[in-house]
Amino acid sequence: MKILPSFFVTAATLFAVACGNNTIPNWQQTSIQADTLESFITSTFGANAVGVGNQLMAEGGTAMDAALSVALAQSVLTGGKYVSLGGMMTLLYYEAETGKVFNMNAAWSIPQKETNPLTIQLTRYTVDSIRTYGRVDGRTVLVPGFMKGVGRAHARFGRLSLAKVFEHAISIADTGVIWDQTDQNAFLNWKNILLEYPETREVFTKADGSFYEVGDKFVQPQLAATLRAVVSEGIDYMYGGPWAQKFVRSVQEKGGKVTMADMTNYDVIWSEPAHINYRGYDVFAHGYPAWGGGRLLELLKIAEAAELSESGHYATSPESLFKMFVILKGNNKVWYDDYEEYDQSLSDDEAKKSWDKMASDAEEVKIPSSKYNGKHSAAVVATDRWGNMVALLHSVNTFNWGANGIFVDGVSIPDPATFQQQEIMRAGAGNRLPEGTNPGMVFLKGRPIIAFSCIGNHLRQQSFSSLVNALDFQLTPQQASDTATIGVYRNYGSYRNLRLGVKVGSIPKNVKKQARELGGLYQDDRTIKAWYWTALKRNWETGEVLGTSVAQKPSGE
Fold first, then answer.
1. Count of CB atoms within 10 A of residue 260's CB?
2. Does pLDDT of 5 surpass 70?
3. Closest by alpha carbon to 404, among 238, 244, 256, 266?
4. Closest Cα to residue 109, out of 416, 459, 439?
5. Angle at 35 between CA 31 and CA 41, to 5 degrees
């Protein structure tokens, strides 16, 4: 296993024609005009935000402009519960003019002074523990990358002004969104934490001093002011300016290790995307120093070596379902055995050897219990009239607002270090924290045809099964997402006794029964949601773009 080689995609048949001030790529000497190249954007949630993203592209914005607008709006829509301006971001971007795929890492960085991470407290996010929670540990706060990612991605690939990209998010913060039952339940469960500090209490208190009730308009004036300051003063307002100073002071007062040097030194990492060839497709995913993309591509290569789909779809073929069990079980084992080699690209020979080993491996391996089940995130994918594509993932990597109750000028500050002590120790103080996100793209004959991203605990497994559906069986993105989604293993403890999660009702009982007779173990899982996998597919001959639908919950709209 080795670090992925450098790789750029360049379409040999690409040539450009001028159209006003824009350069419109044409493929294989076709006569595609600007107005026949459709733009499209979709996301895990935020239908109105997605609508605004489409409008921005209609007004001349790129796919990046639109995706960043949606991501910003999502952070405001949720009030920092699921995603936040104080979170992290990863993305892939295909630039049609150059024919290159760019990989951007704006994930968490570890404070330079965090030299003993194994002593960071672990939080168990259960309703009972949260309601009675009385401890605060600022050391669970890491250096956020989301807003730096917004700034760097916009500067490199945006066309619209920063003010235009931020406009909808500011409007939502000013005018408010409906406080629904989901918001109410979350607030009541986290009330003990959210009312601990005056600045956080202010976020959830109406002008008359009362708390929000179902049906009220939840407004966020402090957050709106922060967003306006970023527009007027630049992204570094949150990395070296007044917001950063206030953030560092607040975290340090609670025992945290983040310093101003950590903030001013933070920057995104531009690196090569992970890449493989799978059944004639070029598949790209989020690359080094993350591990999620490499693990996803490893799954696809081993599936190819195992001839996973040769005996039919895994929802109808017991043999294929059993192979799915073995492949995912082996990939899960590799993660625990070989963490240090998280970013890799398997050759065909290596994939075959890995499959042969997985198929015959009877080794008993102890796998630690999952300590955490709530890594909230959002995914956005988009393509514009010029053929640019983006696959974006942003996250707070925690459950709801986290357990520290920290807000800084309206921005929720999550606690991702509370369950990643081992990973932080391995990465080392001052370094980027490797993570498992896997936004990606699929190319056919030099053309990008699919952009995808995924959220939730199942993101690697669900991306894998959805890509098998889309590439092996030519399903549309929505069909691929809806069809027999596979999730994580349950009943941790013994490697031999792991049970593969499958979406409830998606695989007939007789198929599971026959696959069990072959040696597979399966368990229905109600936490698998079809809309967690977000994708679009572009047909370059017809100009048609198909995508997954925007989830209606949680929307906040």
1. 15
2. no
3. 256
4. 416
5. 115
Tokens of 319: 């043999």
Alpha helices, DSSP H only, in 78-180? 127-131, 146-157, 162-175
Looking at residue 237, what DSSP letter applies?
G
CA separation, residue 209 to residues 113, 186, 203, 526 (Å): 40, 20, 11, 39
Distance of CA 549 to the CA centre of its chain: 17
SS3 state at 211? strand
Which residues lie across from 40 on neighbouring strands? 383
Compute φ and ψ for 530, nearest 5 degrees.
-60, -35
DSSP secondary structure of 388-407: -EEEEEEE--SSTT-SS-EE
What percentage of residues in the chain have a pLDDT greater than 70? 83
Q: Which pLDDT tens digit goes with each residue over 399-446?
A: 888 888 899 999 999 999 988 899 999 999 999 999 989 999 999 999
Q: What pLDDT, in 10s, does the model give residues 94-117? A: 999 999 999 999 999 999 999 999
Q: 440 with 452: CB under 8 angstroms?
A: yes
CA atoms in the 13 A half-sphere facing the CB of 135:
11
Give pLDDT tens digits for 469-501: 999 999 999 999 888 778 776 654 455 567 888
Q: Rounded to 5 degrees, what angle do the CA atoms 470, 33, 382 make? A: 40
Listed residue (528, 408, 535) closest to 469, CA to CA:
535
Nearest CA to 335 among 109, 451, 492, 470?
A: 492
Residues 69 and 201: their CA atoms lie apart, in Å, by: 27
Residue pair 500/331 in contact (Cβ under 8 Å)? The answer is no
Count of positions (residues) in the chain? 557
Amino acid 474 reads: Q
Q: Is the per-residue pLDDT at 541 higher than 70?
A: yes
